[in-house]
Every structure is written in C-alpha cells, then in structure tokens.
Write a structure and sequence with these properties.
108 residues, alpha+beta, 18% strand, SH3BGR, Glut_rich_SH3-bd, SH3-binding, nucleus
C-alpha cells in the first residue's frame, strides 16, 4: 500500500504550503512510505484526485485544496482530518496502516 499525498508545488497560499509541509514532514519523520503527487504538473492526477474525494468533503464552491491524502485509491482525508488524527494519536489508523510492531499508534 502506498500513501499518496496530493500537493500543489506552485501554490500561492502560505497556508496550503504549510499544511503540505506538515503532512510530508510527519510522514518522513515517522518513516512512513509515501508518494507526493503534484497536481499542478499532472492534469490527469489532479482530475483523478477531484473525482475520488467524497462528495461530503468537497467545498460548496471551488475545488478541494491540497494536501489531500489517499492510501492507494482509498480516500483518507484532507489536512484538517490529518491534523485531527495527529491530535488524537490515530494517524496510522487514519492512513489505513498498522502501527509498526515496536510502537503503538499513540506514540506517533
């Protein structure tokens, strides 16, 4: 299973950039394998991301903002969902992963 983080490398939004860095930094620090998918460079991937975000997670106006997180084709959530799982010490469950044997989800 590959965690995919859909990002926008050329976002003009400081908040979006910080959110992307927070997700990627956490995954790197916890040695969780993931793939960054840049939606500003890959139109096909951007459209796939938009199509696969559940209707209830899409904003009333405009498009969902990155980062958006998937485990293969299963939607995990956006930055707010990720942040909430981090606060609740449930990131591995949020990502659909088993916690490594030498640690519990609450240690992440």
């Amino acid at each position: 299973m590959v965690i995919k983080v859909y990002i926008a490398s050329s976002s003009g939004s400081v908040a979006v950039k910080k959110h992307q860095q927070a997700v990627v930094g956490f995954l790197e620090a916890n040695q969780i394998n993931f793939q960054e998918v840049d939606i500003t460079m890959l139109e096909e991937q951007r459209l796939w991301m938009y199509r696969n975000i559940p209707k209830e997670k899409k904003p009333e106006k405009g498009n969902p903002l990155p980062p958006q997180i998937f485990n293969e084709a299963r939607y995990c959530g956006d930055y707010e969902d990720f942040f909430q799982s981090k606060e609740n010490n449930t990131v591995f469950a949020f990502l659909g992963l088993n916690a490594p044997p030498n640690r519990t989800d609450s240690e992440s």
